[in-house]
Amino acid sequence: MMQRCLSRLAIRRAAAVSAARLVGSSTTTASAAGGGFVLASNAPLRARFNATTTAAGDSTTLKNPVNVETFELDETIVKRHQEIGQRWSDIGEELQLAKAENNHLSVIAAVAKGHALLVEVGPMDSPVQCYTNLCMEEAQAHFNLGQGKEALDAATKSKESLKKTATDADAAMLSEIDEFIGHALLLTGNATKAEEVFRAILLWIDTDSKKALPMVSVAAVNQRRTVLLGLGMAIKCAAEKTVETRGDGTAEFAKALDILLDALALNTEAEDAGSVKQNLLGIVKCFVGVGDSRQAVATCEKYINFCHRAGDPEGVNHGTLLLQEICNKFNIPNPLVGAPKAKQPETTAPADPAINP
């Protein structure tokens, strides 16, 4: 789910993770695709005149290009702003290309250029919420590389930056960043903290978001299904840790199963293939955890068939191996052994970039 960039928040994505903004987009959800920081090649430069910015360590005052006495343009200042706008556009194009190629290291390199340009020209001569979006792009790239700590650090910087200037309209974006942080915590193995984060988001969705701006309320309703998925996966991971320490995780698996089944219905209705796939996989493991071999096998077969229909051979192979493990664990026959091989699709769809762990 969280393999996107975000990000929805990069995650959401997201998540994710992901509607494009004038020069940037929010994370997700994670489910987060590539989402996140976007610079349109024809985006107008958000220059503010008579403002003080920091450039390469020097304090420089941006002068108004219009001489208020003669009403003539200062071509030098105009040219400077045009050059800065082009440099931002180039970085935006580099980011988009790197994400399209799933080249996460190149995304990180492009983000570094963005941070350097932001320091050079200052926030007033940069895209809206530039630092926030750059950090989320970096967070999503690290997440996609399996670098949980680095993803968590970058997402935390993004959240703290946004909170300093956040308005009521930014509440949904803050919630998406929190969702990404929950998935990053899962990636680092901190299931307990991740569960706390997801529960806090759900509380906001069910209470304060209903009093927020209409667009925030709508975004919160749409976010609920992926947050439920994250919460279910967090509880499942906690149950697996309990079992690893020779404890009884049956009750936790059952709790996670109920939540994941609710999330599956919502994600299926939303036709979110990445979340449905993650849902099914989590449900399979929960059925194994509660000792229901029949449902575990049946759901694993559904997972395999879903991956096959989605043109995801990697998912098919994963599900096939998982099914054999389940059959070995419960000492039951594998229903796929001896069954005719399913015809492989002629074309394969790209892997869904949703912000799932």
Give average pLDDT, whole number: 81
Broad shape = elongated
Question: What's the CATH class of the domain at 168-357, please?
Answer: Mainly Alpha
How is the biggest beta sheet arranged? Answer: 2 strands, antiparallel
Global structural class? mainly alpha
CATH topology of the domain at 168-357: Serine Threonine Protein Phosphatase 5, Tetratricopeptide repeat
> How many runs of DSSP E, i.e. beta strands?
4
Strand content: under 5%
Going by CATH, what is the homologous superfamily of the domain at 168-357? Tetratricopeptide repeat domain
* Termini separation: 6 Å
User: Which oligomerization state do the chains in this entry correspond to?
Assistant: single chain
Whole-number radius of gyration? 23 Å
Description:
The protein has a domain at 168-357: Serine Threonine Protein Phosphatase 5, Tetratricopeptide repeat (Alpha Horseshoe). The protein is elongated. The protein has 11 helices and 4 strands; from the N terminus they run ββββααααααααααα. The strands form 2 sheets. A two-stranded antiparallel sheet has the order 1-2. The longest helix has 31 residues, at 214-244. The chain is mostly helical. Helix content is 60%, strand content 3%. Helix 5 packs parallel to helix 7 (214-244). A hairpin with a 4-residue loop joins strand 3 (66-67) and strand 4.
